[in-house]
């Protein structure tokens, strides 16, 4: 018998500044990561004020992780130590496996009206793959299939929905990454492998992500213990972590909802993390930064 996944915890993304001065909102990061294995961080960079993003993320290293950048509106110029360079445009995705080490930069440009909106997810790599050869995959919007089921639209970036498989495959943590839009008065169910971490990030609109619609059946970060106005309907910039189970169910009433549905296989290993480098031990972390200082970081 299939088990519906309940909501375990809800976060509201919080403003922060990263890179050379990019204003963004962080849904989760260092402190929350132990609950979200294999995922480490999720940022929502959304602004129509260019001074808040044009300074970008100049050259910096990564090791031991994958960074996944998905752009809704605008452009992001990028380059890396492997010689890759180009532009991530509206609807495009960049899936970069840092592996043993890569140095890159990401410079948001916005669109013709100054709007920049995208997301970056970090996924961890197990010890067996942390020093794998770096690789880069640039996926343009036209390569991401969209499935329509009873008015519900699903862009399949990784994993499978409606019998269609996304273009991102052969990734260590077996991720699923879907961009889902549900019209008002509709219901969407989707199977997720038991034991996998599953989360949703709401882009726009409102929906019910727990079939019981129990506003007090889960933890809400930042809410007071006594909260008469607590709602069970979730809205923009909410990050939802699901409990274990077989199926996620989302329903809407008077408004549509658009969200990212992401899942992956937990790694279950120690995490040693400082800045853009994530290893298993403090010694490995120190070695990585020593190599970066002495110019031997890129293998």
UniProtKB/TrEMBL annotation:
GO terms for molecular function: metal ion binding. Pfam families: Pirin, Pirin_C. Keywords: Iron, Metal-binding. Binds 1 Fe cation per subunit. Residues 177-297 form the Pirin C-terminal domain. Its cofactor is Fe cation. Fe cation binds at residues 60, 62, 104, 106. Belongs to the pirin family. This is Pirin family protein. It comes from Geomonas terrae.
């Amino acid at each position: 018998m299939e088990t519906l996944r309940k909501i375990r915890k809800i976060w509201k993304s919080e403003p922060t500044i990263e890179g050379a001065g990019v204003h963004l909102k962080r849904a989760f990061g260092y402190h929350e990561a132990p609950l979200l294995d294999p995922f480490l961080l999720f940022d929502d960079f959304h602004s129509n004020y260019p001074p808040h993003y044009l300074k970008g993320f100049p050259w910096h290293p990564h090791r031991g992780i994958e960074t996944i950048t998905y752009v809704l509106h605008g452009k992001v110029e990028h380059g890396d130590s492997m010689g890759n360079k180009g532009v991530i445009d509206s609807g495009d995705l960049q899936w970069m496996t840092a592996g043993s080490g890569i140095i890159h930069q990401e410079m948001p440009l916005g669109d013709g009206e100054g709007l920049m909106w995208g997301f970056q997810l970090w996924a961890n790599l197990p010890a067996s793959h942390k020093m794998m050869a770096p690789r880069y995959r640039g996926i343009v919007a036209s390569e991401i299939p969209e499935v329509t089921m009873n008015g519900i639209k699903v862009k399949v970036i990784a994993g499978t929905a409606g019998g269609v498989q996304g273009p991102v495959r052969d990734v260590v943590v077996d991720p699923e990454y879907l961009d889902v839009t549900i019209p008002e008065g509709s219901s969407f169910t989707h199977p997720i492998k038991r034991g996998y971490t599953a989360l949703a990030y709401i882009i726009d609109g409102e929906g019910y992500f727990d079939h019981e619609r129990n506003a007090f059946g889960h933890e809400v970060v930042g809410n007071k213990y006594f909260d008469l106005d607590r709602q069970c309907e979730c809205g923009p910039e909410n990050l939802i972590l699901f409990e274990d189970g077989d199926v996620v169910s989302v329903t809407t009433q008077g408004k549509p909802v658009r969200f990212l549905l992401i899942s992956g296989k937990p790694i279950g290993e120690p995490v040693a993390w400082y800045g853009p480098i994530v290893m298993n031990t403090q010694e490995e972390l120190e070695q990585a930064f020593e190599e970066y200082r002495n110019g031997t970081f890129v293998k």
